[in-house]
Amino acid sequence: MNQRDVPLLLSRVPLFQELAADQIAAIASDARLLQVPKAEILFHKGDDSHGFFVVVSGQIKLAVASSHGQEKVIDVIGPRQSFGEAVMFLGRPYPVFAQAMSDTLVLKIGKQTVFNLLAADASFARAMLAGLSLRLHSLVGDVESYSLRSGVQRVIGYLLQQCADQGSAEDEPSVTLPIFKQVLASRLNLTPESLSRELHELESANLITVHGRQITIHGLQRLRDYDP
Predict the structure, then answer these.
(1) Are 88 and 51 in contact (CB under 8 A)?
(2) Exposed/middle/buried for residue 202 (C-beta within 10 Å: 0-12, 13-18, 19+)
(3) Within a domain: 166
(4) Structural domains counted in the chain
(5) Which domain range does residue 202 map to?
(6) Chosen domain end from 135, 166, 192
(7) How far apart are CA 164 and CA 158, in angstroms?
(8) 36: closest CA among 128, 140, 109, 108?
(9) Which of 82, 143, 161, 215 has its CA 20 to 30 A from that of 134?
(10) Per-residue pLDDT tens digits for 122-147
(11) How far apart are CA 37 and CA 40, in angstroms?
């Protein structure tokens, strides 16, 4: 990917889907592509925010660490997803750290460009609000899922979401877990042992087949309808 591809990438990011072509071009003109090697920290908790990011390829883990060294994964950001917007608008330090899960390419969008567009163009502000509202709706759904659903329901929801994100129309798609199981377990508010147990339950019910990080789903509707 090179700088010429940036406007097309931005047009596919949910946060920018309501923007006009000239607004996307204005953002793209000041955006920078950054290579983040696997395990490298993009920013630390407490760092000042000077913009926000879009993942082009690879994955970024957002997490916090306790005083005892334990880690809680808040989110795992994949391609065409953005992160860091709310902190930028609030003018506060990052409340989490961001680390590359694999060799990752991100796009950094400077806050001054965004702030200039917000001040000059009311339609840009409305479009950004629409994008942020969609993101908030998704986060509220995550909180509800982790608070009210059982462990196996969380795993099912994650697998179905992966199929939707990949645009799979097959009835028996294969999903490659994009992250290590312990990271996924933390993301779903489960222990690694619980995650393995839930996957085993789904496999025993002949709903999935697990081969390492590769999971074959034996019928999307059957998986949706499963009621343990």
Answers:
(1) yes
(2) buried
(3) yes
(4) 2
(5) 149-225
(6) 135
(7) 10
(8) 108
(9) 215
(10) 888 887 777 677 666 566 555 555 55
(11) 6
